[in-house]
Amino acid sequence: MVPVETLQKKINREIARRSAGLNARQPAELYAPIDYSLGMGGKRLRPVLLLMAFNLFSDEIEKALPAALAVEVFHNFTLLHDDIMDKAEVRRNNPTVHVKFGENNAILSGDAMAFLSYQYLLECRSERMFDVTNLFTKTAVEVCEGQQYDMDFENRLDVTEAEYLEMIRLKTAVLLGCSLQAGALLANAADETAEQLYNFGINLGMAFQLQDDWLDTFGDPQKFGKKIGGDIVANKKTYLLIAALEKAAEGTKSTLYKWLKATEFNAEEKINSVTEMYKQLGIKEITEAKIEYFFLRAAEILNQLPVNDLSKKHLIELSNNMLGRSS
Amino acid sequence: MVPVETLQKKINREIARRSAGLNARQPAELYAPIDYSLGMGGKRLRPVLLLMAFNLFSDEIEKALPAALAVEVFHNFTLLHDDIMDKAEVRRNNPTVHVKFGENNAILSGDAMAFLSYQYLLECRSERMFDVTNLFTKTAVEVCEGQQYDMDFENRLDVTEAEYLEMIRLKTAVLLGCSLQAGALLANAADETAEQLYNFGINLGMAFQLQDDWLDTFGDPQKFGKKIGGDIVANKKTYLLIAALEKAAEGTKSTLYKWLKATEFNAEEKINSVTEMYKQLGIKEITEAKIEYFFLRAAEILNQLPVNDLSKKHLIELSNNMLGRSS
Fold first, then answer.
1. Confidence check: pLDDT of B7 > 90
2. Which residue in A209, A107, B276 sits closest to A98, CA to CA?
3. Residues B218-243: what's their mean pLDDT?
């Protein structure tokens, strides 16, 4: 089994190698934002998962590299367009694509990335390509659905926990599941095994996204990277807020509503007040229990996977790492 | 051979049949703009071409119907995003998607349509699916390149004829070529024959786009549908303007520049003045000769196609129809 860091390096090396090619393509105005977006770095989580799943069944990792890049390019395409819709100005400490290159260019370069991801995917010559392309396409549609739900939730105060979980399944989890399943299929694993890996990815993705919500309020400011409380300031419909709205009695609820409707406020004060409410309602522990629930389901699926324990080791390590646990 | 009108009806019936399914999909905010866009009508030129090419080699037209819808959905996706970039407010006498549903929804529903077009395409079960998906993907990237060139040209006064022709090849012609080639491949035609149909489509597309430029200035207001002179008012870099800038002597050129730079002007006056200049420079005839050049190349390729004359009849009719000629 190839360790995670080696896979990340392989992916970054391949992105760098192709960067020259992208920059040589015309029109430059279309390809420069694509290269900029891919060059911003990041954990390369999705391509790593794809290669790890592939590596469970085959050592010829190079064969799956184009598909690994495809899921990364697709993921970056969603970031480009989401950042326009969310009017986000900074990503990974850099100006977002639409800020740097203009909104029209971000729309169009994003579109080109969507098709570029298919171009990379189709470079793989596997007898399972039809299944992989179908899976990738179904996933892409679902990710759009997830983003739409996320936008719809902005204007709603009555989002249920079930609706929220379905939204993050679509927006985040399915692409992790797809990466794992595609990796397995490309290595010619059995259909059932590839599906198990998909389900592992779904549960891992759910835990991962819930933890992202948790960290934004309860995380360690030193380690978090972003400012703590951003979600609270922006009224983001996180698992925390939805659970709080479901659990709060009338008095607490109206204070919460007051903060949600406030147009002028001191950010620090709002963060402290809402965080305190979360603590009193036990939202911290409720969220932790939910993360644990999905993490354990992921671990159980992994446990039942018909590959040897040594091969699973890196997937377990990566899962622990993603969720900030020591293994 | 199935006549064009029958094919159009088949396509519209299939779009209507799937409309209920699209409207049942959730979230409604994602699918309503898609259904709206596909329901706006239009000539369904690309799916008709796909089915006609298929029908040259097979009578089982139903088998190619999902692929025909795929190229139509893809085409409508490009319209959605182009209309945002161009700030266009009306299309086919209806408010554009971003005007009716908001810009974010137009971006996201457009994205979903891009993937939906793959979903439709992959419904076809042909042994040539890999080739067809590759062709479709290559074409999609090229269409993005074409749109980028078109946007770049807005800020340039030195666009050459060769650059312009390459832009319309990418933005318009390749999708016609792709539709024809995909139809042939799905019917299991020989690779070489499918490529001939691609080249036929390219030349037909070039003639078609040049005629669109010609019509906007010299068309019959009764038949044209849009207001004559829109391109002139908007300083659009059409074949006419580019040819005029290449051909005009200094005096005429500076008058042309004056109009291009004017921010306040009487539209009627600008249209009349520029049209008069075009006429004096012989731009009308130059453009007609260029249209004829591509039309004849298309006809010649069709002539050499290894299918019987009766089968070609409808393609010839459609070409004449597209270019407003009586056959």
1. yes
2. A107
3. 90
